[in-house]
Amino acid sequence: MAKIAALSSRSIRHRLFIALCLMSIIPALVFLNYIFPSIFVSSVSRINLFLVIPVIVVIVLLGFILIKQIVDPIIRISQDAKSIAGGDLERRIGIEGKDEIGQLGAALNKMTAKIRENMDELKNYGSRTAEINIQIQKRIVATSGLLQISGLISSAAKLDDVLNLCVEKVQGLADSSCGFILFLENERFSIRACGGLDIQIEKNLNFSSGNECIAQLFKKHGLTAIYAKNSSAFFQEFLNTFNLKSLLCMPIFSRGKPIALLGIGNNVSDFIYSPEDSELLEIFGRQAAIAIENDILLRRVEKLEIKDMLTGLYNEQYIRDRLDEEIKRAVSYQRPCGFILAKLNNFNAYQNKYGQIICETALKKIASCLSAALSDVERIARFSDYEFAIVLPEKNKRSCEEIAGKLKEKVQYIFKEEPEPDKRLTISTAVAENPLDGTNARELIAFAQELLGG
Question: Interior CA angle at 336 toward 333 and 342, to 5°?
């Protein structure tokens, strides 16, 4: 057995040859010696057959053991290889030796280790790719949001609509549970747009412009991250007001002056805002700043404009200012000043049925008709979507009522040829006179609007 064990270091070819000899050639020669004694001549006396047979059996068993030592490792390698092929990359082939089987086991172990290493690299690459995909997705969503905001700004949408959309988009950043814009009005910062905040908290959010936390946020002129675990007392108080554990705030300036504060926040413990989150919030903050600046400029332009773009008549702001001026002049000279407010009847139904283009054509037609019926000193303006205001200097209430009656007839006349009854537009009028119905423009307009039921 010791000799058999010593053969384990030899090559498989040598071991197979020895096993073949032990199991077949040597027993065959022994049997041939007994069957054909003349072939093998020996001076030694023949061994008893009963002694030879056990020896032959032992030799055959030794050959079988040697074969088993060759086959068993191959079977074990095959089983281990199947497990590895099935996905168990942690399995290691436990066959060692200097022969071909040992070398095969070592080679398979090296190959498995290399596969494990490559799989780990693939997993790391996959996780990095997933992170990159998430960042790309964030960028795409942010870009889409910025384009939507830009579209609203370019279409001269209301500032509140733009700010609400901005808050809606920033809520998707950094696992935020809420977003908000604090706006400066009358020396106080209050909520102008928000999402995700408790209604009660939203109502109570109001800070003076001198608030220490607000002052510090604007002093930095850049992004500020506030965390519950390592912030100063006034920042802690600011967080508690929002009932949050972390905040990322972006101050917004208009012409170098503080105007608003854009922020996002959440209640995640030990949360840290990434540079990417900060960069995206800064971009949205700049977009909000553009929207606010654009709104300020639009309001200034509206104050400077005196004409309605659709009808060519004066606009509401101009007629209010002109009415105030005429009332002051009338008071100075103790003369009357009349005012007529005309409203198109059933115009909402007309607009819903015939659409925007037909409505605009009708408004232009009515504006031209009313304007042509007035004198040079009398002023007419488009007052709202479907109202017209007329200032009548030196006219008392009776004269105004006569003019209003004529205007009704003229509007009725220009639409009388319409084949469909609901296309025959008419107007209702309300007449007011200073000082009987009001001492200033605001009072006269309110009086006329009340008469028209609105």
Answer: 140
pLDDT at 43: 41
Assess whether pLDDT exceeds 90 at residue 65: no
Between 127 and 7, residue with greater pLDDT: 127
Would 140 be classed as within a structural domain? no
- Give start and end residues of each alpha helix (H) in 26-182: 26-35, 49-85, 100-154, 159-170
What CA–CA distance (Å, rounded) separates 31 from 55? 12
Q: Tokens 């012409």 appear where?
A: 255
Taking CA 204 as the corner, what is the angle to CA 202 and CA 210, rounded to the nearest 5 degrees? 115
Which region holds residue 394: left if phi is over 0, alpha if psi is between -120 and 50, else beta? Answer: left
DSSP letter at 307? B
In a domain, 211, yes or no: yes
Residue at 181 is within a domain: yes
- Residue 344: Cβ within 10 Å count: 21
Dihedrals φ, ψ of 412, to 5°? -60, -35
| Mean pLDDT, the chain, integer | 83
Residue entry with tokens 């008419």 = 426
Of 187, 240, 194, which Cα lies nearest the Cα of 215?
187
User: pTM for the complete prediction?
Assistant: 0.53
Q: Sort 383 into a burial class: Cβ within 10 Å, 0-12 / 13-18 / 19+.
A: buried
Residue range(s) defining the domain that contains residue 400:
316-451
**Per-residue pLDDT averaged across 290-315, rounded?**
87
- The SS3 assignment for 296 reads helix
Measured CA distances, 228 to 40, 236, 237 (Å): 103, 6, 10
Residue 389 near residue 319, CB atoms below 8 Å: yes
How many domains does the chain fold into?
Answer: 3
Residues 6+ apart with CB under 8 A from 327: 337, 434, 439, 440, 441, 444
Mean of the pLDDT values across residues 210-233? 86
CATH code (residue 320)? 3.30.70.270
Domain assignment present for residue 309? The answer is: no
| 263 neighbors 250 (Cβ within 8 angstroms) | yes
Dihedral pair phi/psi, residue 246, rounded to 5°: -150, 145
Tell which residue, 343, 327, 325, has the closest CA to residue 404.
343
Q: Tell me: do 193 and 127 sit in the same domain.
A: no
HSE-CB for 294 with a 13 A CA cutoff: 20
395 three-class SS: coil
109-133: b or e for each residue (b if 16 or more CB lie within 10 Å)?
beebeeeeeeeeeeeeeeeeeeeee
User: 268 and 181, same structural domain?
Assistant: yes
